[in-house]
Amino acid sequence: MNQDQGDGAREGEHPVERRIPGPRAAADDCEKLPEAKPGGWEPPGPPFSHRVLTSLLGAWALAACSAEETAAVEEHLTSCAPCADEALRLRDAVGLLHTDGTLDLDPMLRSRVLEGCLGRRPARIPVPAWAAPYDAETARLDALLRDIGDSEWHAPVRLKWFEGERQVNRKTTVAGVIGHLMAVDGLVSTALGLDDPLGEGDRPVSPTERTESLWASAHRPPTRAVRVPWRDQSHTLVRTVSFAGRGVADLSVPYGGFALPLHDALLERAFECWIHGGDIADAVDYPYEPPAAAHLHDMIDLAARLLPATLAGRRRAGLAGPARHLVTAGRPGRSLHLEVEGRGGGDWYIALDSPAALGSPAHTVAQVALDGVEFCRLVAGHVSPVEAAAGQEGDREAIRDVLSAAASLSRL
């Protein structure tokens, strides 16, 4: 046999020339087009090598092969298992490129990833349990702020709260809300000996006065630049209480007309951060969920513990009915059963006749049942006492007084 004829030629037969097509050149690079044959030009159709067929798998998956190449690839896939597996993977990948679903990331993805990471690998210096709600809510709000555009920082936000018996409101912007949070968080900062965002000098103590002072001191409306100092301040607060030890939890934080221990002050700041985060989310049309159930329960518990003193203050101002029973060591006085349902729910007995007394199930004269998030909206001043309660039973005056006291916990 003549070796020059190739492996496929037999003696007496014409040799078969096998050609592997090279890479296709661009039309501009072709010096001369093939000459036309009678009936039109047709490309030669020799068999393809394994290497060439493998290189065509990507184009085949994208349906970009010619009819001849497609037939050759598919015939090859029936006899070559590795190429068949690769072809399936490429075809699946192409299917992902043509999905009808949205390619936008879930806006809650960041918070879920952070929650999962912290659950699997706790911080080396753990955050105290009483500071965890503040840590979580500032992180959630910061995730929202990172996702909004420059123009949305100027979106109008209307803050609502109760003064006396009526709901009032104040219009600001997203950036203005963050400035408000930073100003009031400064109360905690100064109690810990940290820098005050209002600077040195004679600084107001009332949360409302601090906010008005910060807003008035700005030479122009606040912009997204306020996010960095607010977030740095929240990080510093969490880091400071984490290193400070147990005794710091009882440090007093003044709020003007009253004071809270540090563990309650940070819980109150977490509550306001969530509520105003919801205000911002509504203004920019962003999904925003309530806090974790355990954190929400702690927030409700704080409000329930503040209600007896708040009720007594309203009674002195003539905004609530008089006490009906003398509270003594053997007679604790009347109680209202506050039944909070849903996430973060539980049962609380609110003392009606003395802020120093503890509520007792044995002396319950009224009961109110409502959802946990709805109760928090009442405490935040976002709904009126008439709108909030889902179920009421018993002394109508006691119910009205407690619900009104809950609404009066709100402020700017």
Brief summary:
This protein is an alpha+beta fold and 412 residues long. Helices cover 45% and strands 11% of the residues. It has helices at residues 50-55, 57-61, 67-77, 81-97, 109-120, 132-147, 174-191, 207-217, 227-244, 262-284, 293-316, 372-379, 385-388, 396-408, and strands spanning 156-163, 166-173, 252-254, 259-261, 335-341, 346-351, 364-371, 391-394.
Question: Can you tell me about this structure?
Answer:
- This protein is an alpha+beta fold.
- It has 3 domains: 48-94; 128-287, Four Helix Bundle (Hemerythrin (Met), subunit A); 295-408, 2-Layer Sandwich (Nonspecific Lipid-transfer Protein, Chain A).
- 45% of the residues lie in helices and 11% in strands.
- It has helices spanning 50-55, 57-61, 67-77, 81-97, 109-120, 132-147, 174-191, 207-217, 227-244, 262-284, 293-316, 372-379, 385-388, 396-408; strands at 156-163, 166-173, 252-254, 259-261, 335-341, 346-351, 364-371, 391-394.
- The strands form 3 sheets. A 4-stranded mixed beta sheet has the order 6-5-7-8. A two-stranded antiparallel ribbon has the order 1-2. The chain has a two-stranded antiparallel sheet with strand order 3-4.
- A hairpin with a 4-residue loop joins strand 5 and strand 6 (346-351).
- The termini are far apart.
- Residues 1-45 have low confidence and may be disordered.
- InterPro entries: Anti_sigma_zinc_sf, DinB/YfiT-like, Znf_put.
For this entry, give a set of tags.
single chain; about 400 residues; alpha+beta; Four Helix Bundle (Hemerythrin (Met), subunit A); Nonspecific Lipid-transfer Protein, Chain A; 3 domains; 4-stranded mixed β-sheet; two-stranded antiparallel sheet; 14 helices; elongated; disordered N terminus; transcription regulation; transcription; Anti_sigma_zinc_sf; Znf_put
